[in-house]
Amino acid sequence: MSVNALYDYKFEPRDKVENFHGMQLLYLYWPHHLMYCSPFAFLVQPDMTFGAFIEEVLKPAVAAHPDAGNASFLDARWQLNGEPFTPDASATLKDSGIDHKSMLTVITPELNGIAGSAS
Amino acid sequence: MAVKNKKLNLKDKYQYLTRDMSWEPTYQNKEDIYPDERFEGIKITDWSQWEDPFRLTMDAYWKYQAEKEKKLYAIFDAFAQNNGHQNISDARYVNALKLFLTGVSPLEHAAFQGYAKVGRQFSGAGARVACQMQAIDELRHSQTQQHAMSHYNKHFNGLHDAAHMHDRVWFLSVPKSFFDDARSAGPFEFLTAISFSFEYVLTNLLFVPFMSGAAYNGDMATVTFGFSAQSDEARHMTLGLEVIKFILEQHEDNVPIVQKWIDKWFWRGFRLLSLVGMMMDYMLPNKVMSWAEAWEVYYEQNGGALFKDLERYGIRPPKYQDIANDAKHHVSHQAWSTFYQYGHATNFHTWMPEKEELDWLSEKYPDTFDKYYRPRFEHWAKEHAEGRRFYNNTLPQLCQVCQIPTIFTEKDDPSMLSHRQIEHEGERYHFCSDGCCDIFKDEPEKYVQAWLPVHQIYQGNCEGGDVETVVSKYYHINIGEDNFEYIGSPDHKRWLAIKGKSSDEKAGGADKNAA
Ligand SMILES: [Fe+2]
Ligand SMILES: [Fe+2]
Ligand SMILES: [Zn+2]
Q1: List of residues 6+ apart from B304 with CB closer than 8 A
Q2: B positions 14-43 inside 8 Å of A (CB)
Q3: Which of A15, B243, B461, B489 has its CA 20 to 30 A from that of B472?
Q4: Contact A4 B186 (CB under 8 A)
């Protein structure tokens, strides 16, 4: 469907990757840890390695959570845009198939948030 | 017409002063004069069928409104002279006003603009007059709200730049984009969105809680504004119902179009009201009723009766109503959690509920609060007590349509976010729900342009790359005064001074180890 309008209604998407000066957006969702109210929106370098992403971006982001110390993220169950995904710590984000505005989900089944409340 | 020396009855007077002031064009094409009336596909066969239940004429309108205005400003004056702010329940209450002034009063102004615009676009005189009066009402609401709250600006932080903040601050893009969406639609969609879905179906959920909230918490200025606006609101609600019935009666082809708009605007309104839910359950020191109770009375019962009544036109209740009804047990807690963790980027203070308040929440939300939210809040309270007040140092993912962070959970599994994702013309888009995702799919061209605050910060369009610069320079939030935890804030200290208590009595563990 398209917009009913009085003129030809067509606009560029506002968040194209070109607008991010060589960087890209990457979302990350850690289920059962709703203390973080929504998935994180990170600004990342496409040629950053997955291992560096875990160490430099993900770990500081979740550091305040009591489960963070017990999480082994590289060994966890991952999804990329809803599909199963096997991380390779030495591969870059780009070579891992993680494109602009992708969402990663990292599932740690043994960790269920504050007092098991999914928080 | 023979002029008789006799007072006109209301009906005749209305006829002369409204309908009879309109005319049929003779040398211009009617469709050229009202170019916006047809492109949405709505078919109007006979404008004279439009009924005006109030039959108000402009001369009576001015007289009546001026009278109300006089009384209102007399009370504002008395409130200021008597230092009315000292009689409120607790200074935490003022934070609800900060949210109202930045989030709602600018919408009154947006409504004024919207009605002024559509009031020009209908070829029916009755609809034009109704829109004209509502435009003036809404402008007055915006002004009187600012005047009602301006007294608080002398004594509390965060109220100094509401219009500027409305255009820029991340969470205020939620109400702003709601009205921008409506105002950039055609005139019939605007009326369905604002007059019907908002004013008629949902407005009680905004107005009643805020105004009773003001009354319960000793804020006489805001209560008086509420009374003064009440008769306007009654007119607006009546217009909302009249609009929908009129459109539906005019042509059967209008039914599916209106149904689609009702689905869309119910969902958008419901999402917007998450802010009100959190205000009721968390920001009012003296509680009126819970958000879940308000939703039951003002939506499930009143809305239920309304949609029963509209059945004969072929209209069914809004899509995803079941999701909204279930969400009454969750949204206020989810919204407050969000503002609590991003309290370094807000123009109002946040805090954890006190012990009695937690118990009230457990009682009002027996199936959800203790299971999903209380452990989180107790953890945060403990962290704060130990000098680690929790702030989220990352930016959140936002919904492409409602622009709220994607914080909402699945109806059938409140431990999982109801995140949705699609690809459209090679770009990825993320949503908080099927409701918002459907709205996008129906008009993608409209929402691909969304000005999402998080993405704008990352694109470098908000005067800085770090949150602190954005908050102070771009948002005009005074760091350390307007934002952060309530306990130990300048507002809190001032309140204790007003009440003659020392500031360390309650401010234990007060610090700002902020983002
Ligand atoms: Fe209003
Ligand atoms: Fe109104
Ligand atoms: Zn949404």
Answers
A1: B317
A2: 35-36, 39-41
A3: A15
A4: yes
**CB burial of residue A19 (10 Å; 0-12, 13-18, 19+):** middle
* B394 part of contact set with chain A, CB < 8 Å: yes
In a domain, A90, yes or no: yes
Measure the CA–CA gap between B252 and B260, rounded to whole angstroms. Answer: 14
In a domain, A118, yes or no: no
Local mean pLDDT, 10-residue blocks, chain B (515 residues) = 69 86 92 94 94 85 94 96 97 97 97 96 92 95 95 97 98 98 97 95 87 94 90 90 95 98 98 96 96 96 95 98 98 98 98 98 98 98 98 98 98 98 98 98 97 98 95 98 98 97 54 41
Q: Are B258 and B243 in contact (CB under 8 A)?
A: no
Nearest to B244 by CA among B304, B192, B184, B202: B192
Print the domain residue range for A53: 17-107
Separation CA B300–CA B293 (nearest Å): 10
Q: Is residue A87 part of a domain?
A: yes
CA distance A89 to chain B (A): 22
Domain-embedded: residue A2: no
Residues of B in contact with A34 (CB under 8 A): 337, 372, 376, 409, 415, 417
User: Which numbered ligand comes closest to the C-alpha of B450?
Assistant: 3
**Beta-carbon count within 10 A of B373 CB:** 24
**Residue B144 C-alpha, separation from nearest chain A C-alpha, in angstroms:** 35
Q: Which of A11, A15, A37 sits opposite B405 (nearest CB)?
A: A37
Q: Does B444 touch chain A (CB under 8 A)?
A: yes
Ligand 2 is an ion; its neighbours by CB within 5 Å are B 236
Q: How many domains does chain A have?
A: 1
3-state secondary structure of B119: coil
**Residues of chain A with C-beta less than 8 angstroms from the C-beta of B405:** 37-38
Query: CB of B427 within 8 A of CB of A99?
Result: no
3-state helix, strand, coil split of chain B in percent (to 5) is 65, 5, 35
- For residues A47-57, average pLDDT: 98
Check CB contact under 8 Å for A82 and B421: yes
Record: contact A11-B445, CB cut-off 8 A: yes
pLDDT of res. B511: 44
User: Which residues in chain A touch residue B393, judged by CB atoms under 8 angstroms apart?
Assistant: 60-61
Say if pTM beats, i.e. exceeds, 0.80: yes
B152 contacts B414 by C-beta, under 8 angstroms = no
